[in-house]
């Protein structure tokens, strides 16, 4: 089947925020006298807001309700975005180029408030027919929910959609949903081998996700 739509992840694909997320959450946890577990960062990449805030409250031990943890951390992230939006070089141009040939959607683990702010600041709001946060579906990545829902909102099937992802859990989610997966491995947080194996195409930078490259899938 021919690819008809491309579904983008946000963090690590359009904006380089994985290190910002880690910095903000580590500082928040430390302020409450706790430390990340050895696998906390890897586990939280791709989690929904409810899932990662629950992890920090219930497993890391931040002595506050998960809802309060989420509100505090999201407020700090929004403040960082207002100071400086860490767009990945060429990401905006890549989205616009693909949008001329394919329908576009966004499936992100970021909260809705952050998705909307990023797209507005980057001038990309009008490029996506569908934008979806994992907080708006039952389960975060690596579960396929956010991709299956995004595809359904486009009125398409996974077989005619491609996903652009960077993280292990994102790659697993897109693969489990049945999309053709394009991996853009993050330099600091490279995906696990089993996750990378989900990819039909692996590129070195998001700028390599061209209409021509997507056209080779399937």
Structural account:
It is built from 10 helices and 6 strands. It has 218 residues and is an alpha/beta fold. Strands 3-2-1-4-5-6 form a 6-stranded parallel sheet, sandwiched between helices. Helix 1 packs across helix 4 (66-83). It starts with a strand and ends with a helix.
Please give a quick description of this structure:
The protein is of the alpha/beta class and 218 residues long. It is built from ten helices and six strands; from the N terminus they run E-H-H-H-H-H-E-H-E-H-E-H-E-H-E-H.
Rg calc:
16 Å
The coarse silhouette is globular
Helix fraction by DSSP (H/I, runs of at least 4)? 40-55%
Structural class of the secondary elements? alpha/beta
Number of strands: 6
Q: Could you tell me the mean pLDDT?
A: 95
Strand percent estimate: 5-15%
> Helical segment tally?
10
Any descriptors?
alpha/beta; six-stranded parallel beta sheet
What is the element layout, followed by pairings?
Elements: E1 5-8, H1 18-31, H2 40-44, H3 49-60, H4 66-83, H5 91-99, E2 103-108, H6 112-122, E3 130-133, H7 145-154, E4 161-165, H8 168-177, E5 180-183, H9 193-196, E6 199-202, H10 211-214
Parallel strand pairs: 1-2, 1-4, 2-3, 4-5, 5-6
């Amino acid at each position: 089947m021919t690819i008809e739509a491309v579904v983008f992840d946000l963090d690590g694909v359009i904006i380089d925020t994985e290190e910002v997320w880690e910095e903000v959450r580590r500082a928040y946890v430390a302020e409450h006298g706790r430390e990340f577990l050895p696998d906390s960062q890897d586990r939280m990449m791709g989690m929904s807001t409810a899932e990662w805030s629950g992890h920090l409250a219930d497993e890391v031990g931040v002595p506050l309700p998960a809802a309060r943890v989420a509100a505090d951390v999201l407020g700090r992230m929004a403040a960082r975005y207002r100071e400086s939006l860490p767009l990945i070089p060429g990401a905006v141009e890549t989205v616009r180029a693909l949008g001329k040939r394919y329908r576009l959607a966004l499936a992100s683990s970021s909260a809705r408030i952050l998705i909307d702010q990023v797209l507005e600041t980057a001038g990309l709001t009008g490029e996506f027919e569908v934008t979806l946060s994992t907080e708006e579906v039952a389960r975060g990545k690596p579960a396929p929910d956010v991709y299956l829902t995004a595809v359904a909102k486009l009125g398409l099937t996974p077989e005619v959609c491609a996903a652009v992802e960077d993280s292990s859990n994102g790659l697993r989610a897109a693969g489990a949903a049945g999309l053709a997966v394009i991996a853009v491995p993050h330099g600091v947080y490279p995906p696990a081998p089993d996750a990378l194996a989900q990819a039909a195409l692996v590129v070195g930078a998001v700028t390599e996700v061209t209409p021509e490259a997507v056209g080779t899938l399937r």
